[in-house]
Amino acid sequence: MTYLRNYCFPNWLGFSEQICYLSQTSFELVLREMMNIDKVEIDKFIQQAQRMQERLADLYQSVNAELLIPDVLPQTFVELGNASEILHLATEELCQQNDQLIHTRNLVEVEHQRYRDLFEEAPDAYFVTDTLGMIQEANQAAAKLLNIAQGHLIGKPMINYILLKERQRFRNFLTQLPQRGKVTELVVCFQKRNCEFFHAASTVTSICNQQGKPTALRWLVRDITEHKKAQLTLINNECELSQNRLKYQYHKGEIIPLDSQGIWYVCQGWVKLTTLCETRKKVLVGLPQEGMVFGSSMTSLHMYEATAMSDVELVSIDLAEIEASPTLNHILSAKINHRLQQTEALLAISGRQRVQDRFCHFLQFLQQEFGKPIAQGTRLNVRFTHEDFASACCTSRTTITRLIGKLEREGKISFDLKKHMILKDI
Fold this sequence. Notes:
With 426 residues, the protein is an alpha+beta fold. The protein has three domains: 2-114, no CATH class; 122-223, Beta-Lactamase; 244-423, Jelly Rolls (Sandwich), CATH 2.60.120. It contains 13 helices and 17 strands. A hairpin with a 5-residue loop joins β16 (413-415) and β17 (421-423). α10 packs antiparallel against α11 and α12 crosses α13 (397-409). It is elongated, with a radius of gyration of 42 Å. The model is unreliable at 1-35 (pLDDT under 50).
């Protein structure tokens, strides 16, 4: 027994201290490893835990073979056993968490790849740059748009692909970008590798950190060259529409004759379109202004009258000419659409039950159609009489006079020296 004691455990006190040290330091080591688990591999941690449990089992077998055990050993083994149990539970929990992390990582990788594919295969050109315009990412459409290999775009300043005469404007745009907000628009000429240039509309989004400071920019760039050409063609055709035709002039208050075989195009001024209701009162159905069209061929009303609200200048266009010209059809379709929207807005106003609501909404309609912002509010460019307001709101002049006085007292409207109404808070 003495031989076994001296051979296996030459110093019983030393052996007890070794076990206590093992129970304390090993548990502390495990806790440190759990706290810093991101610094070691999960498999290595599990292997260390298994080796610790194997060493603990060997110690139990060795001590159980000895009959005389100091009093300090039972308590030490209890504490060591508790530490081992905690380690075992921590290992199982760690394995579960690791499985969850692997699953989450796989989902994140799938989503990342999905959005990466969307970025790469998008039909429009996308760029990601820093705040100075240095390209960090560019998709395939961007490379195709600029006629440059995708890899050659990375690390290049975006200004390199802007037309030389517009580069200063681009620099100013980048400088002022943080002051404009997160999403802004820029129309600028880009230049391809073969020196061909094109007009592009860019939508720029700022990427900000937690402090709200911009750290990067996302660019959506679209080639609008064809749109520009169509717009210029439309403008030129519209100029020709008014320049190459006989112009008719009518003074304010004059009745404008209507021809069932043609329509009027307003070159200058405003026109009031009215009809008669069963009470023989005039009802406002339209307010064509510069660039709009009107005519008896555009309505099914039997009683239909056009009155100049200011000095107006008109040109007449035959319906037969419109039918024979696709270009003329294209030009006039947008103007007819504007008239349709205006008529529906007036119809919605007349359908409101309270006269005060009809009047306020009509003023808002006029603010949108004829308003010009000034320091005091919004000034109506056209003057309306109380009778005009009454016909638009389906009420009497007396009621309109009372409502105008009420709004003036409330400070919501006022009039300038030329009797033009100024709207403030309608």
